[in-house]
Design brief:
Among the domains are: 200-299, Serine Threonine Protein Phosphatase 5, Tetratricopeptide repeat (Alpha Horseshoe); 300-400, no CATH class; 576-613, no CATH class. The chain is elongated, with a radius of gyration of 33 Å. Helix 4 packs antiparallel against helix 5, helix 6 (71-83) packs parallel to helix 8 and helix 22 packs antiparallel against helix 23. It is mainly α and 618 residues long. The protein is built from 36 helices and two strands. The longest helix has 17 residues, at 597-613. The protein has helices at 4-14, 20-32, 35-38, 40-53, 56-65, 71-83, 87-96, 102-114, 118-129, 137-144, 150-163, 170-182, 186-195, 201-213, 217-228, 236-248, 252-265, 271-283, 287-297, 302-314, 318-330, 337-350, 353-365, 372-384, 388-397, 403-415, 419-432, 438-450, 454-468, 474-486, 490-497, 506-516, 521-534, 540-551, 555-567, 597-613; strands at 576-580, 584-588. The relative contact order is 0.02.
């Protein structure tokens, strides 16, 4: 018979923090003394420690050494298999267990969900109800995190009420709030919050974040103010949620107050709060404050750097964003797919071809070439640069093509005049890809417009709602109207325009004025008047009217229009082009004097001479 002091001694040892080598040494002594074989507690304790600090082989050997296995032994063994991703063996162990408790069921349900088998997890949950084991609050919190729809969540909620666990647990209540907020049913989440017997900071945070994400920014701020009147102090997540709400309504004044509160509370150095502050200032059109926050904090963190890069690119400060990116790389901060996506999306606007290629090489080097978000940004970048062949190569190499990928390549080909390829990709999407959406139809209609494929474009347009379930929007109507205008069918285009919800838009006005404005004075005046209302500072309607009046000798009208432009300080926008060659060079319209201008115009004269010699100019 084993003496009690020895058991107490080894039990005390195993309850201390041990290294793996120390654990193996103690375990070997227990085996030598046959204590693991005869005492389930000591065996389970060794098994649990191996599961946390050892290898899976050590854990399996420790499990086999326990002669009298109880339910705790089986639960630990199954948890180890789940942690190592072997859900198939874990399910076999679950089925072979002599008895199961609620921990066993919770482990296999969460294991299935963690491995991406949500449907299997729900199946096990349904089977649990017929097994005689009552689900715990933890069970419901697991299941609520992956329900298929809000209706399914409501069914689980009803089942919880019948079992008497709906509002008795803070964890369960918080899970219900999260579930309802995820699907946009914030009123239901608020009802759960009010009915909870006890709440905590997480409850408040979930509710505030839910109001914010669902578009009720003012309500989120109101709940935050109420929270501050209670005994619950806001944490970093609370502050970040409220800052997000302020950025959503572009309330810079309130946002600054929250930033001051975060500084006073000591949360401003938290990367989540700092990131939210940078985003808030950026979306409130105060990018200088975003830069100030970033510089003063000097917090080189992946989340903060991503926010700064995103904010700079959204304000067309791409070169500054690239500097932050380079500095972050020097600080050994590994870029994420979000970082690369931001840079790639803006690369077409400011990076020369060589550096765009280098950025693509970095994507490959970091192993993000098959990431859908990064690949889509690569397609977008190459398309905007006119390199549709490179965009197609990236698209073809993608393992999983989502709808964003298809939309990017279809729009890319359409904008670059590759109309047949764009339509062909659309037809391929209908056969092998996901169902098209509004953006897809915009892309294929633009392709038909640019390629003058009138019959095909009209066919897509008139069948898009019945065939693909996409209701025509003003964007689609604009594309069809442009198609008809380019084909000379102005009357048909005008009929189409009358069906637009917001009436004729600025783009169509400019298109009509450029095609028909000078010839038909009544139409010119009518469309120009509409464009003036839509874009008061645009010079286009006035310039077209001036030209139309000049052609008809109506000099008083010409003078009146020019005086109107002068009084309103409306000037013709000077067109420009730019090129990056060892720096950015901008060439304005009718500009003769600029850096290197003499050489440019000398080369241009030589080119014109060659063109004349070849007989291309008569």
């Amino acid at each position: 018979m084993v003496c009690s002091p020895r058991l107490t001694f080894f039990s005390t040892l195993l309850n201390h923090r041990l290294s793996l080598n120390s654990l193996k040494l103690i375990h070997s002594q227990l085996i030598k003394l046959s204590l693991c074989n005869t005492n389930s507690y000591l065996g389970n304790r060794c098994l649990d420690l191996y599961s946390k600090f050892g290898t899976i082989k050590d854990t399996l050997l420790a499990f086999d050494d326990i002669h009298h296995k109880n339910i705790f032994s089986w639960n630990i063994y199954m948890r180890v298999l789940i942690d190592f991703g072997d859900i198939k063996t874990a399910r076999q162990v679950f089925d072979e267990m002599p008895e199961r408790d609620v921990v066993s069921w919770n482990s296999i349900i969460s294991g299935y969900y963690a491995c991406g088998f949500g449907q299997h997890a729900l199946g096990v949950f349904a089977k649990m109800h017929t097994s005689g084991v009552t689900p715990s609050g933890h069970t419901y919190s697991i299941v609520l995190s992956f329900v298929r729809s809000v209706c399914h969540g409501m069914e689980i909620h009803g089942n919880m009420i019948t079992k008497g666990v709906a509002f008795a647990s803070v964890i369960v209540g918080n899970s219900l709030i999260d579930m309802y907020c995820k699907y946009g049913f914030v009123d239901y989440a608020f009802g759960v919050f009010l009915d909870m017997e006890e709440v905590d900071v997480i409850s408040w945070n979930s509710l505030i974040a839910g109001w914010s994400k669902s578009g009720h920014k003012e309500m989120a701020f109101k709940q935050f103010c109420i929270m501050r009147t209670t005994n619950y102090l806001p944490d970093a997540f609370t502050i970040s949620s409220v800052l997000t709400a302020c950025s959503g309504v572009q309330d810079l004044s309130q946002g600054k107050q929250i930033v001051c509160l975060s500084i006073k509370s000591g949360f401003f150095s938290n990367s989540i709060v700092a990131s939210a502050a940078i985003n808030m200032f950026s979306k409130c059109e105060s990018i200088k404050d975003s830069v100030t926050v970033f510089n003063e904090l000097d917090l080189w963190d992946s989340v903060v750097c991503n926010s700064m890069i995103s904010s700079l690119t959204s304000h067309q400060l791409e070169e500054n964003a690239m500097r932050v990116f380079v500095l972050s790389m020097k600080k050994d901060i590994k870029p994420t797919e979000f970082t690369l996506s931001c840079l790639l999306s803006s690369a077409s606007r400011f990076l020369p071809a060589v550096q765009r290629t280098e950025l693509h090489c970095l994507v490959v080097k970091l192993g993000f070439e098959y990431d859908p978000v990064v690949s889509n940004s690569l397609i977008d970048m190459y398309s905007k640069c006119g390199l549709t062949d490179a965009a197609k190569i990236v698209f073809d190499q993608m393992g999983i093509k989502d709808l964003v990928s298809w939309n990017s390549i279809i729009l890319g080909f359409a904008y670059n005049g590759k109309t047949d390829e764009s339509v062909q990709l659309f037809e391929e999407l209908l056969k092998n890809g996901p169902a098209p959406d509004e953006v897809t139809m915009t892309g294929v209609l633009l392709a038909c417009t640019h390629g003058r494929l009138i019959d095909k474009g009209l066919s897509y347009f008139y069948t898009m709602e019945d065939k693909y379930g996409v209701k025509p929007t003003d964007t689609h109507l604009t594309a069809i109207a442009e198609m008809m205008i380019n084909a000379g069918e102005l009357n048909e285009a005008m009929k189409m325009i009358t069906t637009m919800g917001n009436g004729i838009n600025g783009y169509i006005c400019k298109l009509i004025l450029s095609c028909y404005g000078i010839g038909d004075l009544e139409l010119t005046e009518r469309v120009a008047e509409r464009l003036v209302k839509l874009e008061p500072m645009s010079s286009i309607p006035y310039m077209v009217l001036v030209k139309a009046y000049e052609m008809r000798g109506r000099w008083e009208s010409v003078a009146r229009v020019k005086k109107f432009m002068k009084d309103r300080n409306i000037r013709k926008v000077v067109g420009c082009s730019w090129i990056v060659v060892d720096g950015l060079f901008v060439f304005k319209e009718n500009e003769v004097v600029h850096h290197g201008g003499e050489d440019v115009y000398s080369a241009l004269r030589l080119l014109m001479q060659d063109i004349e010699d070849e007989g291309y100019i008569y």
